Hints:
The protein is of the alpha/beta class. It has a single domain (44-146), classed as Rossmann fold (3-Layer(aba) Sandwich), CATH 3.40.50. It has six helices and seven strands. The protein has helices at 2-6, 20-27, 55-67, 78-88, 104-114, 128-136; strands spanning 14-17, 40-43, 47-51, 71-75, 92-95, 119-123, 141-144. It has a five-stranded parallel β-sheet, sandwiched between helices. The structure holds calcium ion.
Amino acid sequence: MSFLLKSGVPASSVEVRLLPEEADERTADDGAPTIAPAPTTVVRGARVLLIEDDPHVAQAMIGALARHRYHVIHEASGSGGLRTAYAQRPDLVLLDLGLPDMDGYDTLTRLRAVSDVPVIVVTARSDVRSRLHGLNLGADDYVVKP
Ligand code: CA
């Protein structure tokens, strides 16, 4: 754990847990004193706000992010995404451009007015104009959906 703290991980994001097997061994114990199991350090994943209206794409991305231990908050609309971004202050926003209630560019502009959270635009729009527009509005990166 001290290694994590020295490498700049905030103490509030480090959680100490027992491994399930070790917890089981303790409950199976006959009451004799035992050596405490070594604590396991788990760094909680960064909180990623995914703003994506396509349920299939959202499901695939949530699965992939969760496997990499990111904590995903999902919103399917621009307005919902903005509300959650204000309220929950995620560490990263993944933003789809084709949203049902407002264009992703508008979502990005409104978000940028109040927050400097890193934003990665994730979209099917691959043309250079769209990329430049997204980056000019304050996106940190631009990923084209396969
Ligand atoms: Ca979409």
